[in-house]
Specification:
alpha+beta, 14% helix, binds zinc ion, two-stranded parallel ribbon, two-stranded antiparallel ribbon, 4 strands
Length: 70
């Protein structure tokens, strides 16, 4: 009997990670780093440790656009 092993695709792991927009949180928090959203270029906050999440980090607006939280 053959067992099929289907490897998980990297894009199955995380989906999207929401980064707060600088427009919404102008001051940010200690340790937050201002970055640009890779999709729309809006300024948003990179939070420490978020790179450990296997997800694409985008700004709040883009995450909502992708159906984040549905
Ligand atoms: Zn964006």
């Amino acid at each position: 009997m053959k067992v099929m092993i289907t490897p998980r695709k990297p894009d199955e792991v995380g989906g999207y990670l929401m980064m707060p927009l600088v427009a919404n949180v102008p001051k940010g928090r200690p340790g937050w780093k201002m970055v640009k959203c890779p999709e729309c270029g809006a300024a948003c906050w990179h939070r420490p440790g978020q790179e450990n999440a296997k997800a694409t980090a985008v700004c709040t607006m883009c995450a909502l656009k992708h159906g984040f939280g549905r």
